Each structure stands twice: as structure tokens, then as C-alpha cells.
Write the C-alpha cells for this entry.
Amino acid sequence: MTEIATHTTPEVGGMGYSVKRKEDPRFIQGKGQYIDDFNLPGQLWLDIVRSPYAHAKIKSIDASEALKVPGVAAVVTGKDLDGYKLAWMPTLAGDMQMVLPVDTVMYQAQEVAAVIATSRYAAADGVAAVMVDYEPLPVIVDPMKSLQPDAFVLRPDRGPDKANNHIWHWESGDRADTDAAMAASEVRLAEDIYIPRIHVASIETCGCVADWDPIRQQLTMHMTTQAPHAIRTVIALVAAGAGLPIYEQNIRVKTHDIGGGFGGKVPVYPGYVLAIAASFLTGKPVKWIEDRSENLQADSFARDYHIHAEIGASRDGTLNALKVRTIADHGYTDAAADPSKFPAGLFNVITGSYDLKHAFVEVDGVYTNKPPGGVAYRCSFRVTEAVHAIERMVDNTAHELGMDPADLRMKNFIRPEQFPYHTATGWDYDSGNYGAALRKAMDIIDYAGLRREQAERRARGELMGIGISSFTEIVGAGPSHDFDILGLKMFDSCEIRVHPTGKVLARIGVQTQGQGHETTFAQIIAEELGFPVADIKIEYGDTDTAPYGLGTYASRSTPVAGAATAVAARKLRDKGRLLAAHLLEASPEDLEWTNGKFSVKGSPEKFKTIQEIAFAAYTNHPQGMEAGFEAVDYYDPPNLTFPFGSYICVVDIDRGTGQVHVRRFVAVDDCGNIINPMIVDGQIHGGLTMGFAPSLLEEISYDENGNNLAGTFMDYLLPTAVETPRWETDKTVTPSPHHPIGAKGVGESATVGAPPAINNAVVDALWHLGVRNVDIPLTPPKIWAILKEKGVAT
Amino acid sequence: MIPPQFDYVRPPDLDSALRALQEHEGEAKVLSGGYSLLPLLKLRLAQPGLLVDIQDVSGIDGIVETDDELRIGGRATHRKILEHPAVARYVGVLEAAGGIGDPQVRNWGTIGGSCAHADPSSDWPAVLIAARATIVLRSAGGERTVAARDFFVDTFQTAIEPTEILTEVRIPRRGPRVGGAYQKLERRAGDFATVGVAARIVLGEDGRIAQAGIGLTAVGDTPFAATDAENALVGTDGGADAIAAAAAAAAAQSHPASDTHGPADYKRAMVAEMTARALRLAIARARGQA
Amino acid sequence: MSTQHVKITVNGGDLEADVEPRLLLVHLLRDTWGLTGTHIGCDTSNCGACTVLVDGESAKSCTMLAVQADGHSVATVEGLADGATLHPLQQAFWDQHGLQCGFCTPGMLMQASWLLARNDDPTEDEIREGIAGNLCRCTGYVNIVKSIQQAADTMREARNAPAEPVVAG
């Protein structure tokens, strides 16, 4: 296992130490406070009536029986909200979504009415008693059919000049240049790759307690959100649009402990808005906690990309051109929390780890009768889809040319000396050493030995496959000249206060949902300032106190807020130097900083510790200097960061049943400088498992009537400890040259890198039978049908 | 997620439980472990007026091997069955018990509750059908037995009357030259079967198959006996050809539905595959080779 | 709707409440008695986040009625520690980074405590099968297995530790 360098003492616990997590004591004792653990006196409960139809007119809603249920206080419908101009609200992608429908439902499980009651159970009884009369309408679940000229227009609210289901068209790269390069390529391959819809399914569902105080005219929104400040601003905008007296200085969004987010807790769900509206109407706190079925059937999905990819290469294996066209199924509205200039997220990172000089990518968003969403499930803004496509095409190219897939990758990798590397679609990769990561993975797994074993097994008719994925991630959104969400630039922040007794309180603009920020951000400050991790308290998630940030998703916390933290700490260190100079009666240039002390050069016995310096900031600061020891930084990243890695997967296919068994999986990751190796490994284990799951088990699919076929955990199959492979992990370290601490972020790398490794392994196992592509999930029936068709099922 | 309202009683013994069922006939449901009934209540798919919790009813959770039978009380949990020394030689029974749900489910779910619930994809029915087991039902009026092969009538429907409690399951004793197996194809640990095949083979003294029992689950409206396959095996040597013919017959007799576990043709092919695997194991065990 | 009186020994102390028969045990523990360490993660008895021990056997408290637990004992995560001394499982999950968001953790801890009470030296396979009814989305299970292995080692060593020598005289 790779040794990670450290520069502080273990007591300080700066970067590189596997410091045990500071947040764990409450969780292991059952004293975490998640949203459903939080209650306010006098609280009411909100539950939601949902549509069984995927597309229908609402003819009537009869709440009379519901209102008779003991404990039911009110039933709210779309028509009620319409009176407050609250029936529709903007999505984070700039489209519009319904809070409650006024006359038409657009997806199965859509919110139709809200029941407010005095208890959880009464609210559920109320929901069961509401009677809705629907008139079904034609359902569109196939985005290709949705694009046909005679298709039912799902969104008449967009106006007569947009009387179709096409949301947007987006392009990147040079079409003419790519077409020419493709035509000039000796070898051309094309594949249709479908990446199905999946759902984050964090073990905690979404929820809130909306608390409108009519006396103080203040709204406190306790909620599960990965982006508290952005949500506060959105609430203010929606309230303003509805003419409600809820102003941003009087809105406080407060997160509690969050049981997993993975992108699913970014969007503003109707349940949140309904709870706020209910609290405003009743003057009481209103709690809404969705159950698992609601979460799976109505909340933000991920993927659902229909990709057509073409690759051009020369016969010697040099990759030359890449052309990709994608249809993006967004459900009934585009609620994907993408940066506004990137409706397809960062999908154009699709040239991957390769020196691919000609590329063109186009994506078309389409409406269907399904829940809205698109970016979630640890995808880094569509990087999962992009990496899946390029890694599949690279493997197929190798097979087609009779080249080993590792060799073809090595031949085409961007070389270390080529960084920073400007891609054909406009990104500037900061640093990378792709060959070293792949070489390391190959050594660990004994790649050559596996290929020999595969040949022997194949001769016996056994189906063994080896799949590689050498991915480049793109995270840390993002520089203000390109990145905003609903206009809000994607900087992030850290405010550090050092108290007189040398203890630290730091607040950040990002929001952990299990990533360990209370520990890792303390480690950054420990590294920069020498305060022990134990003396540093990290806070986040309360918009009244935390500095404005855009939140945690797309692996942006370390790249952006981590940078802000280091920069703020360095501001303090700069002030500390001046204070130390004052205390030591030396000139600042004559001091050197090591191990939490400023000492006089050449006279190491003359020093002041950072704790002494902090005390002096309050008790003995030089005249003319501002007292106190605080700093804040809002960091606008100059670029994204580009973690990378190489994964190798070995599978064996059961010819009797079509089951795919992952026999081994080696993951070598490079996320630049590592703050906490143990936490990084944990992120990778979890990410690998969330890459394994959609490869073999998970899929949200719909029948032609728009019925969700995997709406509970009985059919939406999360992996248990039994089938989850025993991940083997290692590292290389290639720091980011532009990041203050050289770190790149890692939260989603494994979810990005793993599926193509597994997919490639299965195709590799079947290539000799004439198979060229199999879409995930690689379920036994799907594989078995191929085996049967090829005559090798037993 | 939230059940509808109902009344609840916890009778102290079998007689009072049976009386409660009789008094509230039609609107009372028996609550045993609860791992089949509670999920239904939480989905509001069942709305009984009264739950009769039989956790305090003693005398119907024992496991004993007699001269002729392995007798398992209806309130025996899956885990108790899995771990009981009397069951140790009944490998097919162990394989079924160990694959039901997950450890928590096995701690509380009971064989009686599971059989009375009769999910068309549940595991016990296949084993009991293959073993030609007998199911014992008690009511306030007395006791009767029903052959397992006649017990599972339709989807979630059994021969049990609303006033009856399933008190015991009786499996023929495993003598020499008897072997059993249960093969469950599932999508993931803890899942209901995509296809489940139980096999029980009795060899004659000449080593040829004297009796065959094959129970299938998840591939019909209700679990059933693959009688064509059974008949095809009797008198054969139990070799590869006989097994293949039986497997094909079992598949032909199945009526799987296409669903999220897989398309019907896949399931039918898997009936053949899993029947072959179950038979190979059962025959080997009957020969004392496994 | 009439209520019934229940009395349950929770973590060694008796608690009582008047409940509707339909009240789920997990809601009694969380909403009525404020023991919010036990969590709810699904509605089809799959995820195991609600796992507690009832009479020492692990159970999904979302799949049990409060009235079913009347007269029985329930152990929740709040009762694992001995005052300020963490249970070896809690210590191990902390040492081995066996949790990230923490939401599945109480259920994992209770299920692991049941597993180790029956098998004090489980193999990795036995551990993975033992927690097959507990879903985790964050950790990929690797460190959960390590945590349970560490706890098993600690608990076995404590049990096998030689008794204090008796001083003669």
C-alpha cells in the first residue's frame, strides 16, 4: 500500500494522517440528530397524496372524507397553491416544476395533494381517504417517441413556440473537424450505449421541519439538503414570486446530520415547499418525512442517457476522432442541478484520459412522463455517463484491432509532460500520470497472468473476462467565468476564528452527508496552522452562521471549500507572522515557520507557538493592526481538478444461469494530495459499491403505461455485504498544481470508474462469441439470452 | 408505511386462539412472526379487523424426529429449524431455511406463517411439496391434515380455513437411500426466488430411483409439484440423461410470468437448470456421496 | 380507536405507554420514547436500519408491532455503551472507519452484537452473511467487516483473559 507523506506531528494530525473521525462518537452511540429525530413543540405532520397514473387530467379531488379523519387539519391542492402563485416554481436547471398540479399529473407518484395532520399516523390515514378522480392521458416513456413530431406535447406551459418535447440542444467540440478526422480514420467503430435510470437511495430519505414564526416573521427550514445557502436563496426567490413576506435575511436553512446525499438531496422537492406553505398557513412547524417508496418513485433520478458513440482510429491503435450524440431523458421537467451553461453537465469530458485530438459531442434533452432529475448518484455532473462511453469504445477498439486493451490505453494516454492538457472539447486537465496508475493496477492483479488464465479457460469453454477502466474525473465546480447554478457562482468558502486560548472554530460553505468534513477540514487547518485537530471545531449547514457556499455534490468540497480553508488559514498565518515579529521583536522576514511555530532564523530557541500568537492577537497586538485572529476566504477556483485512476475487474460468467460473478476488482486511484487516507479509502469503497450496483443490480424502469417497476427496495436491489466484492485499493499521488494543497477530491471517482470496468469485463468474456456490447445492468436474464443466442448456454 | 387500524388480542393458549378465530371469523388474521403480515399491513394491502397474536401459544413450535416423520411445529422459526439437531440430516430443508430472507427475518418468521401466507415465490412450499409432507390444521372443532400437494391452492390462497391455525408440518423421515436438495436462483441475497426447485429422491435397493419429489416455486400461480418430471424419473438410474429429461419436463410444466426477476422464457429455462442441479445433489445425497 | 397498555424493558429499564395496536415498535421507540438512535430506511423490511434486539434476538423493529413487544425486552443502540465506556463494537467501528453518514450504523451495531453473541470468531463470509439484512450505501461494507472482526478479537481476548491471581495467605 502506498505510503502517504505527512509534514506535521501525529498530535497535530495534519494532512496524510488517518485521523479517527471527530463526528463518530455521536453516531456510534445513536445520538446523531437526523431530520426525523428533530421535533418542535406543536408540530404538525405533512403527508402527500400521489398519482397512480403517469399522465392524467385531474377531474376532481374530494377531501371530504379525509377532513373527517381525526387529527387531519387541512388538505391542500394545486388549485389552492395557484391562488398564491405557488403551484409552479423554478428548478435548479432553470426550467419549471410543479409543486402541486393544477389540472394535469405528469408522472406516476407525482404529488397531487398535501394532507396536514396532528400526527404521523393521522396524516397517513388522511392521505388514504382523499379521493381523486383521474382521466388518463397518453403516456410517453420512450424519449425517441417523445421527439416525434406528432407526440403529445407534455409541457404546454412552455408556450406555443415550444410545442414539442425537446428541452434543449447542447454541443461541444468541432463538428466539421471531427467529421473530417473520422472520415480519414482507417478504422471506425460505432456503438449504441444505454445507461439506464437509477436512484441514489441513500438510507435516509429526504425530509424537513418547516418552522414559520409569524410573530418574528422568520422561517427556519430544517431540512436534508446538500446546498443550504443556495436553497435559502431559492426559497427567497420563490416566496418573492408568490408575494409572500418571507425575505432572505429572515430565512434560516439549517441542516442536521444527513444520512447520505449522493446528489439526491440537492433538488428542491415539492414536499419541502408544501411544508413551508403549510407552516405559513397554520403558523405552526410542519414536518415532512418521505417514505422509501416516495423517495424511489418521485425523487431525483440519475442517468437515463441514450448514447450513440463513434470512434475513429488508425490500424496501429492510435485513437483519432470521437463523435457522440446523446438523447437525455429528463422526465417531465429538467430539474437536474447542472451549472447553467452545462445542461448536459460535464459530459464533454468524454475524450477521457486519451490524447484524442478531434471530438464533437451533442446532447438533446427530452421530456417524458417520468419524475424529473438527472444528476445524482455520485455522477460528478454526467461524468459517469461520459467515462462509461469512452472506456467502452476504447475497449472495443482494442478488441477490434486485436490489441490488448491495456496496451492500447498506454499508447494513447496523455503523457505526464503534456499537462496541463487542453482537450478537444475545451477542458484543461491540471495533472495526471495515467500510465503509472494503470501499470500499478496491472501489477497488483497480475494482469499478464490473468490473460494467460483466460486463454486456458476459454479453450475449455469457460467464460472469464477482464475489464479495464482508466478514467479521468473532472470535479471542483467551478471557475466563475464558466460556472453558475441559477446564476449563483460556484465559489465556496471558509471562515476561521481562533479564540484567545488557541482553539479554533471554522465554518464552511459545504455540507457533509457522511464524507467526514468535521475531520478533514480540521486537518487542513491543522496542516496550515499547526493547531491540533482536537482543538479545531468545524461547523456547517446553518445559513445564519456559515459563510455562503454552493454546497457539497460533484466532489467539489475539497477542491473548492478545501482551497478556501487553506487560503483563509494562510491569511491567518500571514497575520501570525506579524504578531510573532511583534512578540519576538524581530522583523517578519527574519522569521521562519515550522511545526506550528514562528522562530527567528538562526536562533531556533527564540520562537512563539501559534497558540501564543493567537492569545497575543487579543491581548498584545501591535498598534495599527486590527485585533482578533479571524480570516475568511471565498475561493473562486481557477480551474477544475482532475482526479484519475485505473481499475481492473475480473468476472466469471455462469453458463447455466447467466450470472456474472466479480471475482476480483483492483482500484488504483489518484486524487492528488491526500488529507486523510482512511477517509479516502472509505470514499472509494463506497463509490466502487455504487458503481457495482448499477452494473449488475439496480435499474429504475417503466412499462409502457409509465408504471415504475422498481418502486420499493423489494425490486430496486441495493447490494448487500454478500454480493459486494472485496475491493482491493491502492493509490498514486499526482498533486494538482493549481490547488493550494494539491488535493483533487475523490468522492465520486469510484462510481465513475467502476461500471465501465465491469461492463468491459463482461464484453471481454463474450467478445470471441461475436458480442460487441451489452448494456448495464448486466443481469442474468440479459446475459443468458446472449449465451443462448450464441449457443453456449448450458 | 403506516398500517390501517385494527384490534389486537394475544390469547394465552391454542384453544383461546382458535375460539377467537371462530368468534371473529372472516375478519381475524393470525399473527405469528409477522414478517409476512406486517409488510402487507404497512402497504394497506390487508385490512383485517382483528389480529390474533399466537406468540404465547405453547406446544406448537417444537421439532422432533419420530420413527416415521420429521415434525416441525407451525411456530418454529426458520432459524430454529436451520439450527435444530433433528433437522441436520434434512439437507434440502436446511438449504431452504437458510435462504429465506436475511438473519432478522429468520429469527422471527415461522414456517406456519410462511405457509399460511403462501407467497407464490416462497421457499417452504417447494420443499414440503417435494417431500410429500403433511400439513396439520387445528380449529375449535378439531384437527385435520392436508397433503402439502393439496394445500397451496392459488396465489396467496391455501386450503386453510379462516378459523384454523397451521400447527405442524410433517415430513417423511429421511431413511437410507433418501436425499433432498433445494436450489434457489435469486437476484440478490435475501430476495424472493426467481426460480426455486426442491427435490427429494428415494432410491430403491437396486440403486434406481424409486420415488421422486420435485416442488417448484415462483414459476406458477402457486408452488406446485412437477409431476411429469417426477414420473419421468421413477425407475431410471438417475444419470445425466434421466436428469436432463426430468429437468425439461419440469420446465414444460411451469407457467412463469415475466416480471422484474426476468422474462418468462428465461425463468422456464432456469427451471430446467435448477431442477437439474437440485436432482444431481439430491441423488448424490441419496447415494451417500454428498 | 382504543389503545392498549404496553410495558417493555428497554435497555434494562421498564418503559410504559398506551398505544394503538397498529403502532410499529420502531415508532414507539423513536416517537413516543425519544430513542431516536434506531432509524427507518425503507418501508418493505429490507434495509435493516431499524434493527434492535428483542429478547436477545435481532429483529427489524419496523416489522413488529409495539403490542407484540409488550412484556418483552428490547435492546437498542442507546444501551450498548456501559456509561461512558464504549462497547467494543462501537470502539471498533470508530477505529476502523466503519461508518460514514452513520444512518445504517445503529442497525449494524445491533445486528453485529447479535452475531458476535452467537459466533465469537466469525469468518469474513460469516460476517457478510450475518449482516446481509443491513444495507449500507456509504462504506461498501469493507470497513464494517473490519470493525466487526476487531470487535470479535477484542471481545474474545477479554473473555479469555486470565483471571486475576489470588494472593495466598
Observations:
- Chain B touches chain C through 29 residues (CB under 8 Å).
